RNA sequence: AGAGGAGUGGCAGAGUGGUCGAAUGCGGCGGUCUUGAAAACCGUUGUACCGCAAGGUACCGGGGGUUCGAAUCCCUCCUCCUCUGCCA
């Protein structure tokens, strides 16, 4: 969430920033925050004053009792009744105001970076790079991946329906091995790039959900384990970033670079249709995620490096890709700047999003209370970043479609050592 | 899952109703001494909010309660340890 002090200091900039996201009444919203905050400060001042008096009285009573002046002590006890009454009223009032303030702040998205253009939807995203030289020239008979996976018997949706439900496919044989190969390839590349591998829990508690911003606004998108009050992760970002909740880092520890592979679970309620056939959208999928924490001065350099890392992966797989800079209206709630990677799936003739790389600046760090202690001992909020590197199913879809041939489906060379075979073939 | 015990500052560890934001030790930082280092000695050393400051307030696992006053008493939740059970 945003910091109230920052809203006060950069009111104009913040207003314009929110307008880029299409929030017309941004000034009113921010003004309301400042109003509640002022009320909060006034109330706290009053309460502090009352408590100071009470503390003073309590000390005196203690002294009176110890020096045997019982009558005076009893009188003083009576005198404190009024103070107590007042603070009993003010305490809950302050809590109520604080609750209002955080709720109001939770409802305000991050301020977009300068380079982000205003815009309403995906239509307005900027293409910053288009590398489409690898688009294959497929014959008319080319099949979409949902036909190929049946033909080669490598992914089974029917089985998933039976055992779990729609959107939970089984990967079988060479399909399962392809997934494992991709995960290993992605992890190994991340290790080469200096990331530390972590294997986080895939269930998280409520605090973690709030920490990275999935809660309260995106509650419906996560699966819940109600009897334990836990959530299934929609992305490894949540557990890996929450490692650093309530943490004060030393400047020398930066940058923090973690990578983790996890399954991801998304309910994606109400977004099913023809355009999400096959592997295009699932309730459970595999993803390798990179998470970095760095000093505010370096975070955009870090973002560029992460983008380069992801680009290296899609290039390695030989897939046609493009990089988008998301516009204000299409960007995630908590992000200040997001680059999306899309690969071209040649039989569907569609660009599929396979990665999203974002700088959250201090938006998550403020919720997480993640700070950096400088040499001067001063503490500042860190910048958090993350990116998919990469999400598997759509990569699989593009690989299958783009590389299909009469003799099977050729696999990119970088995967050969991991796969143990060079193409997917019929049994 | 059941029974018992425990959670205090970076760490260790005192503190069972008042002057406790909290002894003491270790570690960290600054200094004295030294050619330098070690040792010794002296000082300093939590976080957040309000305030120009002085200062005030809150925090002893989380939340709630009793009391004029809670680290200390009560309730509840969480975590850890020991024993029993179950289990990849």
List the helices and strands and how they pair.
Layout: H1 4-9, H2 11-20, H3 26-66, H4 70-106, E1 126-131, H5 145-151, E2 155-156, H6 157-163, E3 170-171, H7 174-192, E4 196-198, E5 203-204, H8 206-212, E6 224-225, E7 230-232, H9 237-242, E8 248-250, E9 256-265, E10 284-294, H10 299-316, E11 321-325, E12 337-345, E13 350-361, H11 363-368, E14 371-373, E15 379-381, E16 383-391, H12 392-402, E17 404-405, E18 408-410, H13 416-419, E19 423-424
Parallel strand pairs: 4-9, 8-14
Antiparallel strand pairs: 1-11, 2-3, 5-7, 6-7, 9-10, 10-16, 11-12, 12-13, 13-16, 14-15, 17-18, 18-19
Helix pairs in contact: 3-4, 5-12
The protein binds one RNA strand of 88 nucleotides through helix 3 and helix 4.
Structural summary, described in words:
With 427 residues, this protein is an alpha+beta fold. It has 13 helices and 19 strands. The strands form five sheets. The chain has an eight-stranded mixed sheet. A hairpin with a 4-residue loop joins strand 12 and strand 13. Helix 3 (26-66) runs antiparallel to helix 4 (70-106) and helix 5 packs across helix 12 (392-402). The longest helix is centred in the N-terminal third of the chain and has 41 residues, at 26-66. The protein is elongated and about 100 Å long. It binds one RNA strand of 88 nucleotides through helix 3 and helix 4.
Query: Using only CA atoms, what is the Rg?
Result: 27 Å
Q: Tell me the CATH architecture of the largest domain.
A: 2-Layer Sandwich
Q: How far from one another are the termini?
A: 54 Å
The largest sheet has its strands arranged as 1-11-12-13-16-10-9-4
Give the class from helix and strand content and strand pairing. alpha+beta
| Number of extended strands | 19
Helix content: 40-55%
Strand content: 15-25%
Total tally of structural domains: 2
Overall pLDDT confidence: 91
Overall shape:
elongated
CATH superfamily of the largest domain: Bira Bifunctional Protein, Domain 2
Low-confidence stretches: none
In CATH, what is the class of the largest domain? Alpha Beta
Major β-sheet annotation: 8 strands, mixed
